[in-house]
Amino acid sequence: MPRWSTLVVTVHLLLLSLTLGGCQQAQELVSSVRGSGATADEAEPEAELDDTEAKLRLERQQAELARLEAERRERERVAAEDRRRELEQADALVERWAERLAAAKTQTSAFIPHQGLTEDDPWGGRIQIEYSVGPDPDSQTLEVRSAGPNGQFNDEDDLVRTRTTTIERSWWARNKWIAFGVFMWIGIGSVSAGGLRRRRIRQQPDKDSSLDAADVLLSIVHIVFAPLALFFWVVVGVLGIFEEL
Fold this sequence. Notes:
Blueprint lengths: L1 H102 L24 E6 L5 E8 L12 E8 L4 H33 L9 H32 L1
Antiparallel strand pairs: 1-2, 2-3
Helix pairs in contact: 2-3
């Protein structure tokens, strides 16, 4: 009897251990199934989080690009405004110099050449002043020029103002060279007249020594106009030299 009871107890214990082992395996299986389901459920929020971060990064990059573009446009606007202001200042400077120099004239309305330095334009270059005479010697031109932003004269970005004047010359100043030519012709003619008279006297030594009207005229021309023409040439030449100086 004790043996059977021991056997029965042993069998019960064996069945109990098998039962407990099966339950534990089942619990592990259930846990593994639940774990795989939880991992799938957690993967979806993680993917959504990655997409959100990518969108945020893209938005930040776009915002940075927009900021840089706005800064570039602002720099260009400021540079254009500065350039416009410099051009206006240079134009006003050239205009002021042209007006001031055009007002400086002699009694004959000729420009008085400027002496000394001028001013600097907004780009650090000197204002250039030139005087010239056109095809008409009585017409004079004043030119005031700024080299502009590139600092090179005589190109398309120069700022220029011109003024013209007509010189009011006297009758003598306008016609002195014509008078010079007339007196030269008279002088040459008088010398030639004297030569002709002497030649005729030599060729006709037996002619009456009395003077006829022609001889008197030739003598007057030779004696009076030859020295006068020579004196006139000297005076006109000296005056011309002084005017050139």
